[in-house]
Amino acid sequence: MNALISFNPVADFFAFVRRPDAQRISASLKQKLLVLVVILALDILLAFAANLLATSIESLLPIQSEHVAEEAEAEMLRFMQTIGVLVVPFLEELGFRLWLAPNLFFFFISFVLVTLQFAPVPFADLLMASGLTESAPLVKIVFYLTIGAAITLFFWLRDRQGHRYADFFRRYVAVYYYVSVLLFGFIHLTNYSNLNAWWYAPILILPQLIGGFLFGYARIRLGFWYAVLAHMLANLLFTLGDGMNALFGTAGGIVWLAILLLSSAIVMVMVFKKNPITIEMPLSQG
């Protein structure tokens, strides 16, 4: 038998970051969407603070970081922004957070997507010495597909022997979660070139690390599609800021940022004053 209890997503998120667990919350669609709104508001506030910190440090130090997107022409940049709102969040959630569930097929998909895109080509020197450089993409695909299949088969066989993968996942969910956050954050260093001070890198990608923590929380607590939606909405809101800059100049971007921050702050106040979200929890026995 379940009981309805008040649920504070902000408090639960910070408790989850300290000690991740595999618990999925049970709530109506409306309540889950309310949790999603809170996650989005928290992402906006924390990402703004992280960007402010990064910008402040960069202004004080002789650091030259060139964003790859700055080299694109205006039309290509608009196209990339559209892709960044719809396609990229979905693909990134597939690669970095689909596997945050006790499902071996999901693990295989995430492993293959991430390794094929970001892992180095195996035997690169041997291929070059043999004059087979053009075969490198095929070698990479076969290599990482084989590794992913071998790991998946290993856990599947253990599962058949009674060592359930679901139990393994729940036991080591913290490792899964933190690894996904770090991968998601540091992969975004590929967005930059000419980064001279590498110690600065974790600060530079701090907004992405924050996103990794929040979207991973949404993935585990709510489900995969909620994480995709949160990621898409976050990208959309910040992309709209770029659009306001383009249409109305710096003032337009500032107004949009103020709207985002004020709205997010109001959401935080409502959560802590009214706590409008309820979820189902099983009653303790005995």
The strand count comes to 4
SSE run: EHHEHHHHHHEHHHHE
Give the radius of gyration. Answer: 21 Å
Fraction in beta strands: under 5%
Strand order of the largest sheet: 1-4
Number of domains: 1
Looking at the chains present, what oligomeric state does this protein adopt? single chain
Average pLDDT value?
85
Distance between the termini: 13 Å
Q: Percentage of helical residues?
A: over 70%
Shape: flat
Class of secondary structure makeup: mainly alpha
Describe this structure in words.
The chain has 286 residues and is mainly α. The protein has one domain (2-282). 71% of the residues lie in helices and 5% in strands. The chain has helices at residues 9-18, 29-60, 74-96, 104-118, 124-129, 136-160, 165-171, 173-187, 201-204, 206-221, 224-248, 250-274; strands at 2-6, 66-67, 192-193, 278-282. Helix 2 (29-60) crosses helix 11 (224-248), helix 3 packs antiparallel against helix 11 (224-248) and helix 11 runs antiparallel to helix 12. It starts with a strand and ends with a strand.
